[in-house]
């Protein structure tokens, strides 16, 4: 008899429509710009002890909204399951999805859209993100810190459901095809190096870690046992059928580090073939959670273009 392991992650999607008060200049990729101004304005509004430059040194960080949302510091007294202790940081409880168009100039009267996805406990902080974006508009953004106003926003609610059947049989699922389209750069690290050729098991390794860590840190500390080794063994049987990915570099300025940083990742489409059915709910979750590094800027966003038929 098959037993199912199920993880449920509640989410809320905040969809904003903004209008510049004058000409607004933004970079082609806008995620880092909005992430930076949201963090700075929310810290100014919520930080009680601004004398601490590093939130880890502040005695109030465990009860601070800003520290939880933007710094996401793990509680050192909380036990870490599996190999979470190997990673220097835990995932933020949100993902930012900036406007996808490459447009860099918005005239007065034009509008742009911005989405923020909140996961787990962060779904309670909708008012804080609304406040942060309103303050960001008053502060100004982009070249010359041009101001904008929020003309409309909407909130939708849902649940991400990830289901894994036990036991996973390596020889049971039939071969199927699936195409992923990466809309924003994917910065995936495997064995300490940035991935330039996207093997399927690289993708699944990262998604399993991201799904389980978001669930554990932001939803429920009781993490069920997942047959990770069997899943990864099965993922290694999935092959690349067609690859149309290319490397795209982009530059951002880090106020924290006081320097410009050249970042890049894979964009485009890739088609996989193999026993894909056991991974479909994990891949669907990744459409909302994003994948790889710098997801809080909006990186690692992808769409599933071909559906997998489940047994």
Report on the structure:
The chain has six helices and twelve strands. The chain has 311 residues and is of the alpha+beta class. The protein has two domains: 9-157, Alpha-Beta Plaits (2-Layer Sandwich); 171-304, Alpha-Beta Plaits (2-Layer Sandwich). Strands 3-5-1-6 form a four-stranded antiparallel sheet, sandwiched between helices. Strand 8 (189-190) and strand 9 (193-194) form a beta hairpin. Helix 1 crosses helix 3 and helix 4 packs across helix 6 (280-289).
So what's the overall shape?
globular
Query: Briefly, what CATH class of the largest domain?
Result: Alpha Beta
Question: How would you write the strand order of the largest sheet?
Answer: 3-5-1-6
Q: What count of helical segments does DSSP give?
A: 6
* Percent strand: 25-35%
**Helicity, in percent?**
10-25%
* Biggest pleated sheet: 4 strands, antiparallel
Estimated radius of gyration? 20 Å
- As for the number of domains, it is 2
Number of strands: 12
Mean model confidence by pLDDT: 86
End-to-end gap: 15 Å
Q: Uncertain segments of ≥5 residues (pLDDT<50)?
A: none
Tell me which CATH architecture of the largest domain applies here.
2-Layer Sandwich
Q: What string gives the helices and strands in order?
A: EEHHEEEHEEEEHHEEHE
Looking at the structure, the CATH topology of the largest domain is Alpha-Beta Plaits
Structural class: alpha+beta
């Amino acid at each position: 008899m098959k037993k199912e392991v199920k993880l449920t992650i509640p989410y809320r999607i905040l969809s904003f429509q903004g209008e510049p008060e004058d000409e607004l200049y933004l970079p082609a990729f806008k995620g880092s710009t909005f992430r930076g101004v949201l963090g700075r304005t929310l810290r100014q509004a919520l930080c009680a002890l601004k004398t601490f430059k590093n939130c880890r040194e502040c005695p109030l960080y465990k009860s601070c909204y800003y520290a939880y949302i933007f710094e996401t510091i793990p509680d050192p007294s909380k036990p870490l399951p599996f190999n979470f202790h190997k990673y220097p940081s835990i995932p933020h409880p949100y993902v930012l999805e900036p406007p996808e168009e490459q447009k860099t100039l918005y005239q007065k009267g034009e509008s742009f859209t911005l989405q923020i996805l909140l996961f787990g406990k962060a779904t309670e902080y909708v008012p804080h993100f609304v406040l942060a974006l309103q303050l960001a508009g008053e502060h100004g953004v982009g070249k010359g810190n041009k101001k904008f106003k929020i003309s409309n926003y909407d909130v939708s609610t849902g649940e991400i459901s990830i289901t894994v059947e036990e036991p996973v049989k390596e020889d049971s699922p039939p071969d199927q095809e699936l195409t992923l389209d990466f809309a924003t750069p994917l910065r995936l690290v495997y064995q300490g190096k940035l991935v330039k050729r996207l093997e399927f098991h690289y993708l699944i390794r990262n998604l399993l870690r991201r799904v389980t860590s978001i669930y554990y840190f932001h939803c429920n500390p009781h993490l069920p046992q997942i047959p990770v080794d069997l899943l990864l063994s099965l993922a290694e049987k999935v092959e690349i059928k067609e690859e149309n990915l290319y490397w795209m570099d982009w530059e951002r300025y880090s106020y924290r580090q006081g320097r410009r940083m050249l970042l890049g990742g894979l964009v485009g489409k890739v088609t996989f073939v193999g026993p894909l059915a056991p991974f479909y709910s994990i891949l669907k979750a990744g459409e909302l959670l994003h994948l790889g590094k710098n997801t809080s800027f909006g990186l690692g966003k992808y769409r599933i273009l071909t559906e997998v038929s489940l047994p």
